[in-house]
Amino acid sequence: MDFAYSEKTRDLCLQVQNFFDDHILPRNELWHKEVSEGKYPVSFMEDLKALAKSEGLWNLFLPNLQEDEPGTRLTNLEYAPLAEIMGKLMWASEVFNCNAPDTGNMELLHMFATPEQRVQWLNPLLEGDIRSAFVMTEPDVASSDATNVQTLIRREGDEYVINGRKWFITNAAHPNCKLLILMGKTDPDAATHQQQSMVLIPSDAEGVDMVRNITVLNHFAPEGHCEIVFRNVRVPVSSILGEEGQGFMLAQARLGPGRIHHCMRSIGQSELALDLMCERSQERKTFGKHLHEYSNVADDIAESRIEIDQARLLVLKTAWMIDEVGAKAARKEISMIKALVPRMQCNITDRAMQVFGAMGLSPDTPLPDLYSWARAIRYADGPDEVHLRGVARMEIKASREKLGQAARYLTLPERL
Ligand SMILES: Cc1cc2nc3c(=O)[nH]c(=O)nc-3n(C[C@H](O)[C@H](O)[C@H](O)COP(=O)(O)OP(=O)(O)OC[C@H]3O[C@@H](n4cnc5c(N)ncnc54)[C@H](O)[C@@H]3O)c2cc1C
């Protein structure tokens, strides 16, 4: 494993960083101002997207981008440091068409859409003309276990009729969100993992009712984490993604790359929290000493650096494995980083907030946003415990295959 960034990656990092410094960061205050005034999407977003696209900084997340599709094809390993840079501002990834959940949705459509579905949905997504949402979680069942979803997708002649209630659907409040990729049940009597299917629903279809945009830790996200009711929503049978009964498999295929992207951005956000902590601790004095001179603050800084570097190495290893052997074979590593990185970001952001004093909880720093997002992704794409369970199961399976090997190292006294 060679994790040194290639010359191509170093050049791209410089290009993305320069773009970020020249065009994105200077507009951050305006972004917040416009959003607080209810202007969303913000006035300059389309111009920035066009500029990023013209510079080839577009769709960088998609390793198997085809010749006729817009963007620069990179491996997951090459994409990782770029996602770190983009992740430092919550709204920046959209400028490069690299924001969740559109990225995961594009990957899903890339793998499974029919030629007609590609024309209708994938191409406008790749161009950045529309946005999309992934619609799985339901308020009435424990959705950590995706087999629990209850929303019904019932076939009637040449149509599917959809009924159910979903919530925390990210991006659904975005005015350009035109596509909802919904997971529900086509056959509740089939084997557990063959009951589910996915359908592509236009967001303006009759019967789609956006109930509310749910704030997260009282944080309002303009793109939304929405509750949506589907009442007798009708779509043609050609709207099925893959085949009936493949929904669970499709959900698994979608979540691998999506999870690693969250973790890559999270590393960048943790770096930002550490940078803020270091700068603040050199500016503020109490009892005649700068804050970093107190050993608890110095320890917090050192622990944060160690945790970020550890986590980054595991994320890069996971990216490398996805590139080399595919997301399925890398599922243990994907679960490991998904359980590790958001918790790390929570811890580091919490330390940074403490060093900032009261200001750390105010909107004058990005720390509350970084914290609430880190806390949220401890659930999104599967809560920590589900990933820990997956890792433990794979460890036990591996142990069972070599059972007794470790016991050879025991030195037990003879039983009398
Ligand atoms: C900000 C945000 C954005 C989101 N975006 C989307 C989206 O775009 N689309 C979408 O469909 N969903 C989205 N979600 C929902 C997210 O995927 C779910 O919250 C998650 O899958 C957990 O489901 P649940 O909330 O029903 O929790 P439950 O399934 O009710 O689980 C509750 C808790 O039980 C514990 N638990 C569960 N399983 C186990 C286990 N095996 N062992 C031990 N403990 C366990 C965990 O602590 C878990 O948090 C989002 C959530 C948030 C917070």
Explain how this protein is built.
With 416 residues, this protein is an alpha+beta fold. It is built from eleven helices and ten strands. It has three domains: 108 residues, Butyryl-Coa Dehydrogenase, subunit A, domain 1; 111 residues, Beta Barrel (Butyryl-CoA Dehydrogenase, subunit A, domain 2); 153 residues, Butyryl-CoA Dehydrogenase, subunit A, domain 3 (Up-down Bundle), CATH 1.20.140.10. Helix 1 packs parallel to helix 4 and helix 9 crosses helix 11. The chain binds flavin-adenine dinucleotide. The site of flavin-adenine dinucleotide has 21 residues, from strand 1, strand 3 and helix 11.
Concise description?
This protein is of the alpha+beta class. It has helices at 7-24, 28-36, 45-54, 76-87, 102-112, 115-127, 247-283, 295-325, 331-356, 367-376, 384-401, and strands spanning 131-135, 152-156, 159-170, 177-185, 196-202, 208-213, 225-236, 240-241, 285-286, 289-290.
Low-confidence stretches: none
Mean pLDDT: 96
How many strands, which pairing sense, and closed or not: the largest β-sheet?
Answer: 4 strands, mixed
- Report the helical percentage: 40-55%
Strand line-up across the major sheet: 1-4-5-8
Q: Based on DSSP secondary structure assignment, what is the total number of beta strands? A: 10
Helix and strand run: HHHHHHEEEEEEEEHEEHHHH
At the fourth level of CATH, the homologous superfamily of the largest domain is Butyryl-CoA Dehydrogenase, subunit A, domain 3
| Rg result | 23 Å
**CA(first)-CA(last) distance:** 51 Å
CATH class of the largest domain: Mainly Alpha
> What's the total helix number?
11
Q: State the secondary-structure class.
A: alpha+beta
Number of domains: 3
The unique ligands bound to this protein are: flavin-adenine dinucleotide
CATH topology name of the largest domain: Butyryl-CoA Dehydrogenase, subunit A, domain 3
